[in-house]
Amino acid sequence: MTDRNATTQWTGPLQSGSGNVTLDSSGTAQLPVTWASRVEGPDGRTSPEELIAAAHSSCYSMQLAGLLGAAGTPPESIGTSAEVSFGPKGDGFAITGIALTVRAKVPGATAEDFDAAARRAKEICPVSVALAGTAITLDAALD
Fold first, then answer.
1. Residue 30's CB: how many other CB atoms inside 10 A?
2. Which contiguous run of DSSP H or E holds residue 61?
3. First to last CA, the chain
4. Beta-bridge partners for 31
5. Is 1 inside any structural domain?
6. What superkingdom heads the lineage (predicted)?
7. What are 118-130's pLDDT values in tens digits?
8. Domain shared by 111 and 79, yes or no
9. How crowded is residue 43: how many other Cβ atoms within 10 Å of its Cβ?
10. Is residue 106 assigned to a domain?
11. Could you tell me the CA-to-CA distances from 51 to 42, 56, 71, 81, 143 in Å, in that order?
12. Residue 106, Cα to own-chain centre: how many angstroms?
């Protein structure tokens, strides 16, 4: 089992406060975060939704690479973007959906085999599984 850690230090009230997210396990980044970066725009700061998008796109790419390799058609390249939608819902705010878009170069893979692997990767990617209950769409195609 592998554990990963991140820590956020927040100062001030929600609307005018700010924080820093530190990727503790790797020590590779300290990222500023504000409420405004969630609801108005990034303005040089990140948001939990952007971090989820990063986690989902990287996890999905690795899962798809593993499935394609196991099928005897290892990818030359995979580009995955994840768009996480966040907005008002009910009495508060929520992640309202995630759109995965993937384009890949996979020598020897048919469009049908690639599509099946892409759909399966969406189902079993650990981040997709962790986000069960959130609508996740997939647009996958070979380059």
1. 12
2. helix 48-70
3. 36
4. 21
5. no
6. Bacteria
7. 999 999 999 999 9
8. yes
9. 9
10. yes
11. 12, 9, 30, 12, 27
12. 22
28 and 66 part of one domain: no
* Number of separate domains in the chain: 2
Token duo for residue 64: 């798809």
Specify which residues 136 forms β-bridges with.
98
**pLDDT mean over 39-62:** 95
CA distances 69 to 3, 4, 18, 105, 116, Å, are: 26, 26, 43, 13, 14
Token pair, residue 52, equals 């989820």
DSSP state of 5: -
Q: In angstroms, rounded to a whole number, what is the distance separating the alpha carbons of residues 61 and 122? A: 10
Q: For the whole prediction, is pTM greater than 0.85?
A: yes
φ/ψ of 102, rounded to 5, equals: -130, 135
User: d(Cα 116, Cα 134) in Å, to the nearest integer?
Assistant: 21
The tokens describing 74, both together, are 């290892």
Q: Let me know how long the chain is.
A: 143
Q: Which helix (H) or strand (E) holds 71?
A: none
Count of helices and strands (H, E) across the chain: 4, 6
Residues 79 and 128 in one domain: yes
Q: Which domain holds residue 34?
A: 6-39
Q: How many CB atoms lie within 10 A of CB 101?
A: 15
